[in-house]
Amino acid sequence: MLQPHELRLASEILPFLRDPTTPIARDFIAQASLVRLPAGATIFAEGDECSAFAVLADGQVRVFKIGETGREITLYRFGRGESCILTTSCVLSQRNFPAIATVERDATAFIIDQATFRDWIDRYSPWRDYVFQLLSYRLATVMAIVDEIAFRRVDVRLAEFLLKHAQGDPPTISATHQQIATELGTSREVVSRILADFNDNGLIRSSRGQIIVRDSEGLRRYRGVAL
Q: Is this model's pTM higher than 0.85 or not?
């Protein structure tokens, strides 16, 4: 059973819980639990049974796949007020988890067991609306990733990544070539080759674990964005 301060936290991210006298709020108080998930923890490994559904109160979780060659691709991340659509799909279909979900930043989450989750889908329209909106939003995100990987050149996507993530003065990204490759869904060798070209053209200066953007306008022109 949730404590009053835990219900207040839940109602901040799930507005339909703000009235504690409603049936869904009473059930949430009685059946949900708040757990802490430390950074680095694996929530689900590929093939695990999806025995529960989680809504993050804070922190961040990354969901990704690893191919036969060992190459990783990030499917999506989710944070405060969000959940994992693959978990949702698995709970509804009673299939095993098809990817890997790990905690990137220390998180807390409200946990609901799978039987309760399915029961609430049937009985409570606010809960059903929340879940379906979540599915719709995240599916669009995943489709955008598929479009990026299938139809956009890696060099253009890499230029965009550098511009998006560079911070400070001078603009700097602290990441290895492998980490960037994982984010872009490509190989480290491809990223290293393109970064070498960027370096030769004076767009960046690359060193071990760090990339300094020297010519932001050049990168913008490279990826076809008007200044």
A: no
Number of Cβ within 10 Å of residue 167's Cβ equals 10
Cα–Cα distance between 80 and 74 in angstroms, integer? 19
CB under 8 Å to 84, separation ≥6 — which residues? 43, 54, 61, 63, 78, 101
Q: What is the DSSP letter of 45?
A: -
pLDDT, tens digit only, all 227 positions of the chain:
899 999 999 999 999 999 999 999 999 999 999 999 999 999 999 999 999 999 999 999 999 988 877 788 888 899 999 999 999 999 998 899 999 999 999 999 999 999 999 999 999 999 999 999 988 888 887 887 777 777 788 899 899 999 999 999 999 999 999 999 988 888 888 999 999 999 999 999 988 889 999 999 899 887 554 33
Distance of alpha carbon 41 from its chain centroid, rounded? 15
Residue count of the chain: 227
Classify each residue of 187-220 as buried b or exposed e, where b means 16 or more C-beta atoms within 10 Å of its C-beta: beeebeebbeebbeeebbebeeeebbbbebebbe
Of 93, 91, 96, 130, which Cα lies nearest the Cα of 114?
A: 91
Strand, coil or helix: what is 8? helix
Q: How far apart are CA 60 and CA 174, in angstroms?
A: 19
Question: What is the enclosing helix (H) or strand (E) of 92?
Answer: helix 85-93
Contact 84, 40 (CB under 8 A): no
Task: Provide the 3-class DSSP secondary structure of residue 65.
Answer: strand
Nearest to 114 by CA among 131, 139, 129, 101: 131
